[in-house]
Amino acid sequence: MPHGSYQVDGVPTAGSWPVDPQDNQVISEDRIWVDGCFDFAHHGHAGALLQARRLGNELLVGIHSDQEIMANKGPTVMNLKERVAAVDACRWSTKSIPHAPYVTSLPWVSHYGCNYVVHGDDITLDSNGEDCYRYVKAAGRFLMVKRTPGISTTELVGRMLLCTKNHFIKSLSQTLDGLEGFGDAEERKSVGIEMRRRIEDYATDCSGLKPGCPVFVWTGSESTLDDGILEAIDSCRPMVEGHGPQSGQRIVYVDGGFDLFSSGHIEFLREVVKAEEEFGRRNRRGNGLQKLCRPAYIIAGIHDDTVINRCKGANYPIMNIFERGLCVLQCRYIDCLIFSAPFTPSTAYLSSLPFGRPDAVYHGPRSTMSLTYDPYADARKLGIYQEIGAHEFQNVNAGEIVQRILKSRTMYEARQRARGGKAAAEEAVLWQEALERN
After folding, report:
1. Following DSSP, what letter does each residue of 225-238 receive, concatenated?
2. How far apart, in whole angstroms, are the C-alpha atoms of residue 412 and residue 40?
3. Angle (nearest 5°) at CA 350 between 284 and 264
4. Do residues 211 and 217 make contact, with C-beta atoms less than 8 angstroms apart?
5. CA angle at residue 46 from 136 to 166, to 5 degrees?
6. How far is CA 359 from CA 95, 225, 252, 254, in A?
7. Measured between alpha carbons, how far is 327 from 262 in angstroms, rounded to an integer?
């Protein structure tokens, strides 16, 4: 629990709320509350936040403590500080509220001025097998949104424990066009259409309603994806329209696998924004920029599954390129996304980017891959290579997360089994609610 005193019913006393404001706020229907564990910054969580944000003008996100989750669900993979960093980075989140109770509390929701609580159409049970949202439902302050199918923390932990590869996507372009994937032609076409719609949704602005990040897909040959040497057929094809850079903004390029998008990736991107803000102050740039526009326009390139697997082996990446792309798109620290970016950003590739050759190419403090060459050699020669130094979450990456799972394999396997039992109980609650409605 956070520092401070609590009443018997778990409501903080005056001055002890985990984040300001400390005074009770006027309740507004435009201020929405959503809460959860948010263990992994996967696109299912982001999808829930996006749907909730579209229902109001502000979104407050309650985040349960490690202890509360352990008591009700089992061990977390990411600690509270890492989970808060992930929520804070989501472009649709207005404020995070750590230490929110596992069973959603009306006094907490009302204190922060929220009228409605939003949750997916799945049921969450506490350690006693009771609905965590029973109080807000009884008060008529519960709104339901559609749960994102095909992704969950449980699913990702399962991939790590079983070392599966059937989530890989060979070609994102072909999959989106319905030419690759599982099922017959009609099923593949339907899946491709749904995937495109999801990309468009995640490319929206902070309101979740208007265009935001433009999205492109690099259609280079397999050799280009590795070495960045362009061929005549290579191009950057637009997928989703959005806002380009403003006059006076520096163009910045970052790239990576962004697997199991975590606090390590998020802090790197945040540090890039901070570095560019400092560069702008030193060079007195940005006077002509729009008030809400930052000094740099940040383009993120994301590598194909086959490229990452060739470098890292095993069953990496744990998330496929579609899933990783959605995770990066929802992050407030990027402005544009390029799917299937080559592993080596060559001079030719950088010069072919949608908004021209970037002013800077950033990389993190260290690489987890053993390479015999420098992928950023061209950026160094151009004098545009920049490196972000050590930071608090620099060691939090896909490899570290997998190791956390494996070190506590017994606990996580027990959690997976328990999750199966809870799913049956949650299904029973859903049936009961349906009968009561009818």
Report:
1. HHH----TT--EEE
2. 14
3. 70
4. no
5. 120
6. 32, 22, 6, 11
7. 9
- Give the residue among 388, 400, 361 at the shortest CA–CA distance from 259: 400
pTM recorded for the entire structure: 0.88
Separation in Å, CA 432 to CA 128, 145, 258, 438: 17, 19, 41, 10
Which residue type sits at 97?
I
Q: What SS3 string covers 44-101?
A: HHHHHHHHHHCCCCEEEEEECCHHHHHHHCCCCCCCHHHHHHHHHHECCCCEEEECCC
Per-residue model confidence as pLDDT tens for the chain (438 residues): 454 566 656 899 989 999 999 999 999 999 999 999 998 767 778 999 999 999 999 999 999 999 999 999 888 889 999 999 999 999 999 999 999 999 999 999 999 999 999 998 888 899 999 999 999 999 999 999 988 766 677 777 788 878 888 999 999 999 999 999 999 999 999 999 999 999 999 999 999 999 999 999 998 765 555 555 655 456 899 999 999 999 999 999 999 999 999 999 999 999 999 999 999 998 876 555 555 579 999 999 999 999 999 989 989 999 999 999 999 999 999 999 999 999 999 999 999 999 999 999 999 876 556 678 899 999 999 999 999 999 999 999 998 988 888 887 766 666 556 655 444 444 433 334 433 444
CA distance 292 to 155: 38
DSSP 8-state assignment for residue 112: T
> Which of 143, 139, 141 minimizes the C-alpha distance to 52?
143
User: Does residue 352 contact residue 234 with C-beta atoms inside 8 Å?
Assistant: yes
Q: Residue 430 has which token pair?
A: 């859903």
E strand spans, 235-359: 236-240, 250-256, 296-302, 336-339
CA 271/CA 273 separation, integer angstroms: 5
- Which structure tokens are listed for 403? 């190791």
Q: Is residue 277 within 8 Å of 295, Cβ to Cβ?
A: yes
Backbone angles phi, psi at 251, to 5 degrees: -95, 125
112 — alpha (psi -120 to 50), left (phi > 0) or beta? alpha
Count of all residues that appear for the chain in the document? 438
Q: What is the DSSP letter of 102?
A: S
